[in-house]
Amino acid sequence: MLDRTAVDYDGLIPNNVGLSADPRLRRALESWHPSCLDWWRARGPEGFQENLVYLRTAVNVDPEGWAKFDYVKMPDYRWGILLAPAVEGRTISFGAHKGEPAWQDVPGEYRAMLRRLIVVQGDTEPASVEQQRHLGATAPSLYDLRNLFQINVEEARHLWAMVYLLQKYFGRDGREEAEDLLRRFSGDRDTPRLLGAFNEATPDWLALFMFTFFTDRDGKMQLHALAQSGFDPLSRTCRFMLLEEAHHMFVGQSGIARVIDRTCVAMRDAGIDDPYDIEPIRALGVIDLPTIQKRANLHFSLTLDLFGNEISTNAANAFNAGLKGRYLEDQIEDDHRLVNATYPVLRMRDGLIVPDQAPALAALNMRLRDDYVADASSAVERWWNRAIARNGIEFAIHLPHVAFNRHIGEFAAINADPEGGLLSAAEWQRRHDEFLPSAADNQFVAGLMRPVYEPGRFASWISPPPAGINGMPGNFEYVRLLG
Ligand SMILES: [Fe+2]
Ligand SMILES: [Fe+2]
């Protein structure tokens, strides 16, 4: 019997989209493939390209057992084009076309809008690989090094996923957009990536864990919203990407939890109860909790900017068109058209942050951001504050107010402290280092970043994970550095 989730591994590009029967598309993708490999070698992980890494590769698209673990050299990773299985008789579940059959081809009237959504999503995927390329040099263990590379190869596969959609469905301009995805670079002065947070540096491993916790979680929200799309190929692509995304967030959640655990254990062993007794804590070779809080403030606020303006006609149009839904749209009980509905938003009025009601369609970015904040807060409690409480230290990580440190939207023009209290520009300057990492904080963290490449060993500032990848033992050689 034909396994409809099976992947064809015979060609250059593993896929379940029938590439061998579509020679034009295959040629387009095969001609893009060398550029992608060039990009990977020039802008992907620095070094380690010839080392064997214990990676998982998708071998089918069945939600259970879709991945196979083995040693692979990263440039040999099989970047496949994988769509979640089609849902028979699927209909559009929101917007003006609600109830109509899902589109198997690009709806002509929405072509430009759809292409833009795919390009923006596609641009973030290689960006994060570029941001993280230097981190192999300072990995706190082989386990962590392997997790970094797993994320990197999967982000590159997500790039492939978006390039497939562009090349298959958008003709010549799709092919040009696919080339441009390899021409912009994170942080580049002339040709930066499209979104702000993807042009920031990821200077150290604390930043990596924060990025995968906060910014990959934005990715999860965006993918969920696109997984609802009436354009079925986009929906199916995003549904499969979400399987991989879960691991990226796991790396951030568990990574920071391990940093926190190590700090708390070291404090207890040294008889230090006060988490603000920073110098003696740092002298133990661990990262003090207030610095972790400040890093969380930074990454959370940068990530909120990715949701765009609170009130947005683009978001309303994409929803109306049936291209981008809400988080878990299919589980919401309302009319899924939102024509007369309202949604509560925070706005600036006469220099004050006040609650207001906005048309629900225009406030869709706000709603997705609210869903994100709820998801992130519960993960902070479950993973981080539980680790602190378990160790009996009196401290809790709090996510700052949504008005804090913003550069896009309603609060871009004001200064607010983490509780949402308004500050004058002078006051913000004076207290900046209280809220956000100071140069000295960053220097301290940078000083801890020395590689530990011996199997089973970990840097002073992070605890070992409770379990290995794919059930491997504690001293497993996740990356083979010799031979
Ligand atoms: Fe991704
Ligand atoms: Fe990701």
CATH architecture: Orthogonal Bundle
Strand order in space, largest sheet: 2-1-7
Low-pLDDT residue spans = none
Strand element count: 7
Principal-axis shape equals: globular
CATH fold category name: Ribonucleotide Reductase, subunit A
The H-and-E topology, N to C, reads as HEEHHHHHHHHEEHEEHHE
The unique ligands bound to this protein are: fe (ii) ion
Q: What is the makeup of the main sheet?
A: 3 strands, antiparallel
- Work out the oligomeric state of the chains in this entry: single chain
Please, how many domains? 1
DSSP summary: helix tally: 12
* Strand composition percent: 5-15%
CATH superfamily: Ribonucleotide Reductase, subunit A
Mean pLDDT: 95
| Broad CATH class | Mainly Alpha
Q: What is the CA-CA span between the terminal residues? A: 42 Å
Structural class: mainly alpha
Range of helix content: 40-55%
For the CA atoms, what is the radius of gyration? Answer: 23 Å
Question: Could you explain the architecture of this structure?
Answer:
The chain is mostly helical and 483 residues long. The protein has a single domain (19-480), classed as Ribonucleotide Reductase, subunit A (Orthogonal Bundle), CATH 1.10.620. Helices cover 45% and strands 7% of the residues. It is built from 12 helices and 7 strands. The chain has helices at 23-43, 111-131, 142-169, 171-180, 205-227, 232-269, 278-282, 289-304, 313-320, 364-390, 425-435, 439-448, and strands at residues 52-58, 67-73, 342-349, 352-359, 415-416, 422-423, 479-480. The strands form 3 sheets. Strands 2-1-7 form a 3-stranded antiparallel beta sheet. The chain is globular and about 65 Å long. It starts with 22 loop residues before the first helix and ends with a strand. The mean pLDDT is 95. The structure holds fe (ii) ion (2 copies). One fe (ii) ion (FE2) is lined by residues 155, 216, 219, 245, 248.
